[in-house]
Amino acid sequence: MRKSILLLIAVLIFDVWYRAYTFAPTVVEATGLRAWPTATGPSEPLDCDEAIYAHMGRRILAGDVLYRDLTENKPPLGYWLYATPIALFGYSETAIRLFPIPYILATIAIVWWIGVSLSGPVAGGLAAFLYAILSTDPYLFGNGSNLEHLMNFFSVASLGLMVLGWDRGNAWPFALAGAALGAATLVKQVAVLPLAVYVAALAIRPTRDRIKAVGWLGLGLGFTLAAAAGVLLVQGAGTSAYDDIVRFGRAMATDVAPEPGAPTAWIRWLTGNADPQGTLPWPFGKTDYLVWWGRGSWPLWLMTPACLAHVAFAPTTSPKRRLVAGWTVAAIAEVVLPGMYWPHYYLLPTPGLALVLAITAGDSFAALGGRGRIVELAGAVAIVAATLGTTFLQVRDYLLRPPQDLTVRYKGGGQWVVLRALGKELGRRKGVFDDPRLYIWGWQSPLFFYGQLDGASRHLFTDNLLRDYADRDHPLITPRVAEIMADLRAKRPALIFAGYPPFPALRSFLFENYLPSRLVPSANGLGLWVAKDRYAAFENFDGPGTAGPLRELSGPARGGPGPGR
Question: Per-domain residue ranges for the chain?
């Protein structure tokens, strides 16, 4: 056991080093420490999700209230937590990159403990290592600061507490499991799905207190959700929170049509999203839009069905192992049910993948020490080969690529590089305005972050539902469009960026009060618009600082979809 603990510590240290590669150039610049092989050029820029979460975290610290002052269709906990790194380390790229690391380390430790509990030290060590590399896979956007890392921490904590309490006579582990699952649900609603697995498992648990255990599980879940609702009510955001989380969230799932050229439903869960022209990624086609999520860890995913069946149905299995298998199936369902299939959603099953693979490997190695049957030998060899294959892919496609190149190659993220440069340029020039505010009709939220600019409306992010119904009647969108236009007229932002073709009211407002900036080519209303009264000062600005290398915003960088939310 001591060796397994030492291995866990080694994996935790490795994970910090491994994830830090994303912002290694910043570390090198600040400390002179060169601990990575190709940490050249700038660090990887923030994508639209990271930037809007960071912006909202800063606004929360400044006194704004979620849903009342900032709209969002997801529950509040992720945003509340996103404020912590900004409070501790400032409003910076490095703070956002550091943010998920403690949660990932804690998840690794829990995954290790579950593996040790269910299959011994070998399984625990392997599970920890597998989750470390799976959760950093750049093809899954795992090396970023996605909310899925928070969801996994809370959800895996709930699984660990269920395993802990299974053979005990105490109710507190189940109450805490419910509370942890509630916390995951407060990050994204879909995280509640393992509740069905837990209730079913407890209902058939051969003890007299199974109904009591279900009750304590529900109590923990309910208390956590009620506590968050109470905070929002006290803040005066109860009604707006209901509209955003429940009504708007439901409409996002039911009223948004698939993107043009999207794959059919039966294959979309496997291929992810096609590019705007409908071309699928390799091996189904060839596109540079978004690279297939499976390319970074496909050997481990390929092994998962057989290992999942082993953990669930082998003669040597146990109720706690079946609980792990059920949790993994529920996590896979969390990817499928929203119907959006963005790469970072596939982070959600990765703790389960690590566990079922490691448990199967532990069983195979144990059997080899005894009878040495061919099935166990084949299983052990296959899992070792899958682990080595995925490690090879990660080294080739992650550690041997310059950090900024990661976002361009694997995430369709040349747009983020351009938006970082443009945002910094806006930050240089914003001093020509008395009250520099920015409104974005699109998903180009890095402009808020890198330009250090505030919004002109509580509607900060243009999701697909708002985009699709901005110029036609919808019970939720029509009032929002009216509110956006009222905000723009009342606060008259200095800058407006149109990443989508503006709806008629916005187009008229732009042509009446703004001129298109030469910084970004304009066509069909797209591009950067500057208030007429300060247009000359903005365009001819020659103040302090150095302009970043702006490239033309075109194609997906200007009008295409961002990487999902």
Answer: 2-399, 414-557
